[in-house]
Write a structure and sequence with these properties.
Layout: H1 4-7, H2 14-31, H3 38-45, H4 49-56, H5 59-70, H6 83-91, H7 96-113, H8 117-144, H9 158-173, H10 179-193
Length: 196
């Protein structure tokens, strides 16, 4: 599956692509991943199913690319000059309402990914791995600035801590993640673990 969509010739304008991705995410929130069909996406977006398959190959790739598209731009453009500033800037990229909606969406997708190998593969390839690489660069800058020791064992767990905070907020506190919660988590957990 890797790289198949990137080799397809795009006949869809960026504006149309954005509209399609928004419709896919709306459908996901309404019916969940398992009940989402390419027929439903085609009907909702007034597209042909053949066009959707030609452009994205299948449901898993379309869903994951829609998720990737709706995320704020990559981490590489965040450079405030300090690790604390960078992490706080990342938390501020989504308001509390968007975080709540995306948290619910991610929980549903994670459940589906455990039983759908194609979804899991697309999610790892298009979301998890690129974000881990980008976090590596962000943390590398902190090491280069002397904020974090290069041999700090917590460096390899920063992504786990952030994802854990995002997921555990609902699981443990029965409340959605918020900017306030994640900012305090960064200051109380992540930065001390890194020796900042």
């Amino acid at each position: 599956m890797a790289g198949t969509a990137t080799t397809r010739r795009s006949r869809i304008t960026p504006e149309r692509e954005t509209e399609l991705y928004a419709a896919v995410l709306d459908l996901l929130r309404e019916v969940g991943y398992d009940a989402l069909t390419m027929d439903a996406v085609a009907a909702r977006t007034r597209s042909s199913k053949a066009t959707l398959y030609r452009q994205w190959g299948g449901k898993a790739e379309l869903v994951v690319k829609a998720l990737r598209h709706q995320k704020p731009t990559g981490l590489s453009d965040v450079d405030t000059g300090s690790l604390r500033g960078d992490l706080h800037a990342l938390v501020r990229r989504e308001d509390d309402c968007a975080m709540e909606r995306n948290s619910a969406l991610m929980r549903g997708l994670m459940r589906a990914a455990h039983t759908d190998a194609e979804l899991w593969s697309a999610f790892r390839e298009l979301v998890v791995e690129p974000e881990a690489v980008e976090f590596g660069h962000l943390l590398g800058r902190a090491v280069a600035r002397g904020e974090v020791r290069a041999d700090n064992p917590a460096l390899g767990y920063v992504v786990h801590m952030i994802v854990g905070a995002f997921v555990a907020r609902t699981l443990i506190d029965e409340r959605p993640p918020t900017q306030e919660f994640l900012t305090s988590y960064v200051d109380a957990v992540i930065l001390p673990a890194l020796g900042v």
